[in-house]
Amino acid sequence: DAILNALEDYGIGGRMHQWIASYLQDRSIFMSTADGDTNKHPVYRGVPQGGVLSPTLFNIILVGLAKKLGGRISVSVYADDICIWTTSLTRLQVQTKLQRAVSTTSAYLNSCGLQLSPTKSATLAFTRKSMACYPVVIDGKVIPSVTHHKFLGVIIDRDLSWSKHISALRKKLDSFVQVIRHMSGKSWGPSKSSLLQLYQALFVGYLRYSAPVLSRICTSAVRTLEGAQARALRICLGVPRCTSTWGTIAEARACPARVYLQHEPLRVHLRLLTRHRVHPLRDVINTRPNSAYSQAVISHQDHLPSNYAPQVIPEIPLWTMPKPTVRLSIPGITKKSRIPTAGLKHFALSYITYMYRYTVHIFADGSVTQNSSAAAFTVPDMGVTKRFKITHRTSSTAAELTGVRQAAHFISQQSPATWTLFCDSKPALQLIGNYMKQGTAYSPLVYEIMIMLTEASQSGHTITLQWIPSHCGIAGNEQADAEAKMAHTTGEVVSIHFSRYDINALLSKAIKTSMTRLWNDPDYRQERLYRLDSGRAFRLPCRLRRDQETLLHRLRLGVAYTRRYLCKIGQEQNPNCSVCHTSETIHHILCVCPQYATERQSLKRLIDRLDCRPFSEEKLLGAWERVDHAQRSLKSLFRFLSETGLDARL
């Protein structure tokens, strides 16, 4: 009844109210066991477990809690996790405010058929003074007072040092290390890429989740996280424990923990800024500019977008709109790469002439450069061409959808006619054809297009959206493509929403810039790896064996088991080569030692055919401009190591 009463309070009645009432009433539960099913037991409270509507219905009850508490108390509600906080000059005043709020909350939940649990609750005072004399009670039972508490996956301590949470992060990473130690070794186990995917799934997501509140932790805590990060990555790469932290992170092409801590607050802020009109944290850089979160966002203020279109809640249900006619194929064209350009043009023009001879043709296209995005459409029969520059750089699909949106808007302003809207982006047309599927990065654009298509249809227009192959000489499409490219400088400015793709692209660019800055800083790089691959352009070829992958990483990082390295770690007494009686380094073995002169001559002959650079350690272990040259070079290197028996020793 509490849910149904809450629905009535918010004006939800009629069939919707009856349907939800039917959904909640006359429910029963039973358990399936090896011996059969148990008896059914009626359920009178709560919402169905696992139901799609259940979280929404539960939240409807708790929406009114904030109004009950009033403005002097702050409250955060996430499902059944409720956090209440306040500030005051004295501990007595804090206790009085919290006790009143807890009593109000308990009474409100009791009226809804819910109950607070004192044993599952906790009070946390952000002060070093004792709160033992100022207890807060629920139904006569004292809420335990703690120095730290886990709320929504983040451990909050009274000093806000986040030391407890960092310890938890480290333990999680250590457990991951133990898992992959049993999964792989230097010469056996999954590939490096598979282990890195496991590392991303088990640890990076957990770190990124809590990163927005960790942006101002101390330097030693950051080093602790990066040290734990490097331990896991060393096992993924198959390198020794004493390999440098920064060399390991760079060789794995991983993002350092400090970079995540710097940029994840920006990701959260961009999501709130671009998707919510009202949110407590949306304007936090103005209301609380000195907070750690605000300072982290302000440091990236140059990246904050402007002049984007706000996301709106659809006023017209999508299921009430007529389904658009979208055709994604042309007879005769199965796969573009298998048909010559002339054939594509022939099939497309034949189909257009046969199907759309008596319709008005309108061609839409989009264009994306490194710095901007634009769109355009052209109507050859009417001599009309329009160019549009989008306020921010976005994806090619969003640019194509913008072109379709502007073309649909143009159609809705014309006299009723039969139109064919041609577009060479199949993903854009698929999104329009599947307009009922919400939650994609382009849903707001698709909704705007559907609104315009619906209005045009109601005005008497008939519109068909047809896919055509790109860059095959169709005059209208080539003209639209040229106009879209010119729109980067001369187009009318239009705004679209800032999508998830745009946020990820912006963050990826900012993270890449930060990682490059760290890589070029002598304090945060391994000099040997920087000398071999200063541009971080090296890519490990596919289909290498695990032992080949790990050997290559040890050679690049300078931790292969040469006599000098073994002497350094205390496993060898003499660091010198047994033949030359000079220090046995990786450079000595690969480029100098006469013991391997015959095999080296063969290696040098094969490598010198690829380019004119002198034979060196950098050439053997560094990056190549062409992928095929890199593969041939490494194949020759592994043959050399195998023929000399070095692959088993190093």
From TrEMBL:
InterPro entries: DNA/RNA_pol_sf, RNaseH-like_sf, RNaseH_domain, RNaseH_sf, RT_dom. One of its GO terms (molecular function) is RNA-DNA hybrid ribonuclease activity. SUPFAM superfamilies: DNA/RNA polymerases (SSF56672), Ribonuclease H-like (SSF53098). One of its GO terms (cellular component) is DNA polymerase complex. GO terms for biological process: DNA biosynthetic process. Pfam families: RNase_H (PF00075), RVT_1 (PF00078). It comes from the Eukaryota. Residues 1-156 form the Reverse transcriptase domain. Residues 356-489 form the RNase H type-1 domain. CDD domains: Rnase_HI_RT_non_LTR. PROSITE patterns: RNASE_H_1 (PS50879), RT_POL (PS50878). This is Putative tick transposon.
